Amino acid sequence: FTYPDGTEALRGVSLAVREGERFALLGPNGAGKSTFLMLLNGLLLPTGGRLLVFGVEARRENRRRLRELVGLVFQDPDDQLFMPTVLEDAAFGPLNMGLSPKEAEGRAREALSMVGLLGFEHRHPHRLSAGERRRAALASVLSMRPRLLALDEPTANLDPRGVRALLEALERFEGTLVVATHDLDFARRACRRAAVLDSGRVVAEGPVEEIAADRALLEEHGLLP
Fold first, then answer.
1. Is 12 exposed, middle or buried (0-12, 13-18, 19+ CB in 10 A)?
2. What's the 3-state SS for the chain?
3. What is the mean pLDDT of residues 23-42?
4. Which region holds residue 57: left if phi is over 0, alpha if psi is between -120 and 50, else beta?
5. How many Cα neighbours within 13 Å face the side chain of 191?
6. Are 154 and 169 in contact (CB under 8 A)?
């Protein structure tokens, strides 16, 4: 994928994520991780090669279908939360899918239960803590029941309690999970397999524990402090 200004964000990436897998995309800032997630969701489209999501090719005419299949949670929850209440945010996606208000509210409450935010329905999203806002953004995606959940740097600005609550919420999700992160500890706790992305290329792939144990690899690609 190349951006309109000529920036080549992904180069020769060849990667397969199996259905039901919990997969970490590791790499430093600027590696191309966010671009990869936006391609999965159809926010961006490949400028070369092919990308298939559950057999659906990432093409302009398939964008709506890709967004039904892939739920993308942005790095900054404030980019995702814009309604007056937490419940309205969680119900927004289902309403846009054509569900009735009653069905949408049911989906929203189910998603808020999954992320531990029942009781927060009438709170303003921007009056929540950082961890609560992140879980509210996650609920706004889970309410659409995606087959693949894509998370962009989900632990950014979270304290240990917020990370633990996020992990508990993800344990309740039964679909495919792709997490873009440079947080190795979170990747080890949330995922089983990983790839390391650097300068738009996949430089390593395998069990997350093996990658996390390879200090030379981690140092070379900016994944150690």
1. exposed
2. CECCCCCECCCCCCCCCCCCCEEEEECCCCCCHHHHHHHHHCCCCCCCCCCEECCEECCHHHHHHHHHHEEEECCCHHHCCCCCCHHHHHHHHHHHCCCCHHHHHHHHHHHHHHCCCCCCCCCCHHHCCHHHHHHHHHHHHHCCCCCEEEEECCCCCCCHHHHHHHHHHHHCCCCEEEEEECCHHHHHHHCCEEEEEECCEEEEEEEHHHHHHCHHHHHHCCCCC
3. 95
4. beta
5. 34
6. no
Residue 151 phi, psi dihedral angles, 5° rounding: -115, 130
> pTM for the whole thing?
0.93
pLDDT tens digits, one per residue of 149-162: 999 999 988 889 88
